[in-house]
Amino acid sequence: TTIYLKDYTPFGYVVDSVHLTFDLEPHSTRVTSRIAFAPNTETTDRSFFLHGEQLKLISAKIDGIAISPTVTEQGLSCDVPNAPFTWETVVEIDPANNTALEGLYMSNGMYCTQCEAEGFRKITFYPDRPDVMAVFTVRINGPHPVLLSNGNPVDAGPHWAEWHDPWPKPAYLFALVAGELLAHSSTFTTVSGKHVDLNLYVRPGDEGKCAFGMEALKKSMIWDEQVYGREYDLDVFNIVAVDDFNMGAMENKGLNVFNSSCVLASPETSTDDNFERIEAIIAHEYFHNWTGNRITCRDWFQLCLKEGLTVFRDSQFTSDLRSAPVKRIRDVIDLRGRQFAEDNGPLSHPVRPESFQEINNFYTATVYEKGAEVIGMLKRLVGDAAYCEAVDLYFARHDGQACTIEDWLKVFEDTTGRDLTQFKRWYSQAGTPRVNVTEDWTDGTYTLTFTQSTPATPGQPHKDPRVIPIAVGLLGSNGDEVRKTEMLELTEASQSFSFDGLSSRPTPSILREFSAPVILERDSTNAERAFLLAHDTDPFNRWEAGNALAKDARLNMIIKGAAPDADYLDALQKLVRDDDLDPGFRALVLQPPSASDLAQTLFENEHAPDPQAIYDASETMAQTLAQTLADSLPRLYAATTVEGPYQPDAVGASNRMLNFRMLALLSRLDGGDQAAQQFASADNMTLQYAALVCLLSIDKGAEQNQAFFYQWKDDRLVMDKWFAAQVAFATPEKTAAIAATLTQHPLFDMKNPNRFRAVMGALAMNHAGFHHISGDAYSLLADWLIKLDPLNPQTTARMCSAFQTWKRYDADRQALIKIQLDRIAATPDLSRDTTEMITRIREA
Ligand code: ARG
Ligand code: ZN
């Protein structure tokens, strides 16, 4: 069944309070609920339906009198009084057999929950919808030393604990954790002097991986006070690390639950990228306390209301704490890699979808990352001061409510007087706009003409023009900026903007800071790109010029059989040696464009991408680049070697980024000698892992790979890296076989999403390996998706997106993939999650 946004109606009852009692038992946990319902005066529909799935109903009462409701697979209905009443049920559930990791489940002997989006209905009968907000009191009875739920602790004794959350919340923010856990504790005093206890709970053995996460939490708390004026609102803030988790982390009120890979960190076991990601995710979940929890979503179509805004906030946070240009460039690389692929394929959907079958399939790059881009555009259009004013009004006006995108846009309209009707198309229209630019230079007037269009997407054949903020600056022939950045507002299908008073024809720098998530189409020359790479004052566009050169050079090799472009090599040579430039920025210019990005561009230009040809061109380019830069490599490798004990700080990380690029190129010249040396002497994971990756990438490193295994076999998170690296960096013809062998390894565990993704996610990400013409990788992935689906539909469905780009490729590959899609679709009892994904992908 398909659910539609247009069908929204409020629930017929409000919930005044919820009392829950849990009697924990691995296979037979009892959940007793006492819920105070009252008729909802906002509506007249009085039908009473409570969601409930996989629950064994033991008893039900209304105002103390036993009743026999009608129970189906989806929930329960019955006649209720047309006045306030008390609802009581006892149900039994089986957390130990809950492999879907949704609702209450067990992970390594500890109990934990994941309720977003619709998991609470697997815990008890309830109106499991985000617009029903209630105050929860929870009692947990269990033998475990740590018993946690939302809100503030009320009281506890041996084998029990009681929690009360004073803030009304939807059921998806409910959480419970019980187990033998250790706390890494600290405190925080809010700006108004309120004392907060902070705890990061982990399994014994992980105590040494908590310090960084705790510091990140405190930085997030201070940042939200200073930048958004948001203070924390409970006496405690608890975070729990869980090994078995479908997603990254969850913002449950006062009790965030994290995939252990997204919170545990130590220099020996985590890379610089891990540290940065952990800091961002801790911030993200913390920021949800206001954007998500205090103000939540009316229904799941509004998911981007909390996710787009919270991603935007966490990216601002990272920009403030680290290098803003590096963060922006990395976000755009990620957006193009994941969101553009989604937006331009069969899974394309608007930032605010209008229908779904399974909401878990809409926790996507479009809702999250494009949703954040839309907020960034809004801020660019209204300006920083107006943005702050509007957001303040949002908090003031909607605190305690379940809201919509309309509510969000209204605060901007009310504070700025702008009409955002056209802007709203960013929420309703799917697909990535193409913006074509032409230019004219006549009598001292320079004119840019922009033409926008968006290709049809599933269910949306026609697209209307959007409001597109295009940041433009102009450079003079000596590289000086003759016009500072101006925010042009493209609103028509085609529109021109003129600049006069210029003494000579300028070089334009268009879409600075990537001011809108569009594909810019413009004829440019290598000379112009090299000029921008050398002179642009906007760091994003400076990188973008290098990226365009890098892509073009490879595309010419692939399409025309050209040799590696001399101008490109020359430009890189100059850039790499420019020690005035941030090493992290230089590393990003040296980072090769991804194979998948090249494939997408080839497809857009009407060439069926050949993954092997892309791989070969990239290898040749790397080899040539190494030879061209040969003289600089040892010096820069040494110069970017960070002295002293490892610190996960931004400056060190930036140096190590460039250091890694140098090592990767050196490995092409010395057969991996330097990498082997680095591997042997590394005292931190960043350097150790970088060395392993460099070796695997040149089809070496068997010895180091084995050493790595023996050193780290007892550390689950490092083992995930070990599994992933061997597949991700394998040569194309070996990829599927290596992945297949690893699935037989004693430490491979399909029930653990991190481990499953380490192998299968890496398989899908090794572009030439996944698309090897043997078709082995396609069938291997399909085999495992079919095996995992009955156990864990969410993770299975998510990984189906590996096939979303299938229409890009040649007829032979399409046929090979089609066989696997058909095979998955024909599997008996396929989950709703996977059925929806495969159906959408096949219908392309
Ligand atoms: N709200 C969480 C976050 O953005 C994501 C939880 C998604 N979980 C799910 N099963 N769909 O941090
Ligand atoms: Zn989120």
UniProtKB/TrEMBL annotation:
This is Aminopeptidase N. Signal peptide: none annotated. Residues 527-841 form the Peptidase M1 alanyl aminopeptidase C-terminal domain. SUPFAM superfamilies: Leukotriene A4 hydrolase N-terminal domain, Metalloproteases ('zincins'), catalytic domain. Residues 33-173 form the Aminopeptidase N-like N-terminal domain. It comes from Falsiruegeria litorea. Its EC number is 3.4.11.2. PANTHER family: PUROMYCIN-SENSITIVE AMINOPEPTIDASE. Keywords: Aminopeptidase, Hydrolase, Metal-binding, Metalloprotease, Protease, Zinc. Residues 212-426 form the Peptidase M1 membrane alanine aminopeptidase domain. GO terms for molecular function: alanyl aminopeptidase activity. It is an enzyme of class 3 (hydrolase). It catalyses: Release of an N-terminal amino acid, Xaa-|-Yaa- from a peptide, amide or arylamide. Xaa is preferably Ala, but may be most amino acids including Pro (slow action). When a terminal hydrophobic residue is followed by a prolyl residue, the two may be released as an intact Xaa-Pro dipeptide. Its cofactor is Zn(2+). Belongs to the peptidase M1 family.
